[in-house]
Amino acid sequence: MKKFILDEIDHQILDILIENARTPFTDIAKKLVVSAGTIHVRVKKMEDEGIIKGSTLTLDYEKMGYSFISHVGIYLDKTSKTKQVINELRKIANITVAYITAGKYNVFCKIRAKDTTHAKEIIFEIDDIDGVSRTETMIALEESINDKTRLMHSIFREI
């Protein structure tokens, strides 16, 4: 697979868009002292190459009453039930991330809940899925790192 080469302008565009995906191309162009057309062409090229995949909206779940975060490690009866379990997990809206893993757990999830009672209900719902043998839950006390830019800048230094 051919590696797509990014130059310094591309790096700067990505840096701005990671900070705020809704930044108008004209604002990016002014900041980088290039034309808005240049920004448009470069972003389109990065989208076509699959480097940029859509844009995201970041919600403040705490302000909406969902401040409780926990991570749930899921053990399965049989690994052959992984796809079936993942499909059932997709039906639980409070599961915001799920990974199929190698190691201690078969699946590892992040859940958002209103409080401990709500989290318990979600975990019981996970436990009731056919194929789940048991779960282990870790409560997140604080999200200390959630940084989208450090890895990107490290990758830019490599290329």
Give a verbal description of the structure.
By secondary structure, the protein is of the alpha+beta class. The protein folds into two domains: 50 residues, Arc Repressor Mutant, subunit A (Orthogonal Bundle); 80 residues, Alpha-Beta Plaits. Helix 1 packs antiparallel against helix 6. The two termini are 16 Å apart. Helix content is 40%, strand content 19%. Keywords: DNA-binding, Transcription, Transcription regulation.
Strand and helix map with partners:
Elements: H1 8-19, H2 25-32, H3 36-48, E1 68-76, H4 82-89, E2 95-100, E3 107-113, H5 116-127, E4 132-140, H6 149-158
Antiparallel strand pairs: 1-3, 1-4, 2-3
Helix pairs in contact: 1-6, 2-3
Mean pLDDT: 92
CA-CA gap between termini: 16 Å
Q: What would the principal axes of the Cα set say about the shape?
A: elongated
Estimate percent helicity: 25-40%
Strand neighbour order, sheet with most strands: 2-3-1-4
Low-confidence stretches: none
How many helices? The count is: 6
Properties at a glance:
alpha+beta; Arc Repressor Mutant, subunit A; 2 domains; Alpha-Beta Plaits; 159 residues; 4-stranded antiparallel β-sheet; WH-like_DNA-bd_sf; sequence-specific DNA binding; single chain; DNA-binding
